Amino acid sequence: MAGHLSPTPPKTPAPGASTSKQARATTSKKPLTLHHTTIPPPHLAYVDELPTSSIDKYMVIDGIAKGGYGNVYEVRVKNKILRRWALKKKNREPLLKITNPERREIHALRNIKNEVNVIELADIVGEPGMLSPVFELCSMDLFHLVFNNPFEISRENKLSIVKQLLNGLKAVHFRGFIHRDVKPSNVLINRHGIVKLADFGGSIDTQHERQTHSKVVTNGYRAPELLLGDINYTNRIDIWSAGVVVAEMWLRHYWIRGVSEHQQLAEIFGFCGFPTDKEWPDMRFLPEFPTVKRKFPHFQCSDAARRFGEIFGVGEDKAVDFMLHVMQLDPKKRISADEALAHPFLEGVKDDVKSILDNPDLDTFC
């Protein structure tokens, strides 16, 4: 019939192609990533909007420490001489973006408040693309004390440091966080001899975020489940790290040090022995197990109790038993911070190491 045009038939889409504009737009975009310089996880986004202080509020007195992340400075509030603080400032990046380690540290310490053995967040300094936390000032870190000072640390003070470190971890874990980088340089001691767990830039809030990879914790302090690729790890990875710190306090040098992840695991199994299926039933299901089994097929059984005895010395049965529980290869059998604090090894231990700071030969930060 004249006057009626047949509608133009729609083009047939290619097989597998979408006819939806929204779908085409979605597939053309790159997926959002949560790298430390891009989009923050939702529970951390609020940190960017927190009220901050101006850098002009503070006067720098001295530099305290330098690292790959940035520098720590001793500062004081201008016109206020009495109290000094520590300002942690990252190295400037070309993109000038707030990073997730900055957000994680601030988020963690805003949620873990008023804990004796966790560092106090006193203020946040805001600059373009940067959030610099201000902390209570401490005299030294455990790395400095253990590895750089020539005098012997008394057994009493070592035990106090262990107790205080575990007390800090107990508070962190109680609030649903995993520290994920427990090591001597992140264990501070203030002028009153109180241990402060610090550096929460690698921490995770397990109530709001799932673990997505196992590449966490400095290699020498990584638990075996991390080295085997477990992404469903728990706060027991912090307990393993604390156990390594304890051993290094007694040894006065690094303990288990492999040049790679697999070599690190080989060092651990060389000390603790290769676990049987009964000792660690879930190990065979971890991603790296087939590779490790193939690379290191002939592990010998090891007498871990005897080896720990060599570290702590004669008559230290409680110390050996403590380490056997803290350094359990199977994370489900590894004790919690609360259980570790209740162990007879720490019975009657004092709550400060003030006597260390009274030593005139001690080299401190400030």
Automatic annotation (TrEMBL):
GO biological processes: G1/S transition of mitotic cell cycle; regulation of G2/M transition of mitotic cell cycle; regulation of gene expression; signal transduction
Natural source organism: Laodelphax striatellus (Small brown planthopper)
PROSITE patterns per UniProt: PROTEIN_KINASE_DOM, PROTEIN_KINASE_ST
Composition bias, Polar residues: 17-30
Swiss-Prot/TrEMBL keywords: ATP-binding, Kinase, Nucleotide-binding, Serine/threonine-protein kinase, Transferase
Domain Protein kinase intervals: 58-346
Family under the similarity heading: Belongs to the protein kinase superfamily. CMGC Ser/Thr protein kinase family. CDC2/CDKX subfamily.
Gene Ontology cellular-component annotations: cyclin-dependent protein kinase holoenzyme complex; cytoplasm; nucleus
Protein name (record): Protein kinase domain-containing protein
Listed GO MF terms: ATP binding; cyclin binding; cyclin-dependent protein serine/threonine kinase activity
Disordered: annotated span: 1-40
Pfam families the record matches: Pkinase
